[in-house]
Amino acid sequence: MENFLNFDIEAMIKPKSRQDLIALAHEALAELAIINEALDEVLSSSPEVASAN
Questions:
Q1: Cα gap 5→29, rounded to integer Å
Q2: In CA terms, which of 12, 21, 32, 42 is 20 to 30 Å from 53?
């Protein structure tokens, strides 16, 4: 797992077109999916969470 976000900072600050906004949204969703997977991994190894399920 990589420890950085792969956002295009300039596109975030100055999107030039609708396509830039769509690409940025896809990047954000991909990063959120990575974060979600990491959280699921951490939570699944937590004894408190395991005993609650």
A1: 12
A2: 32
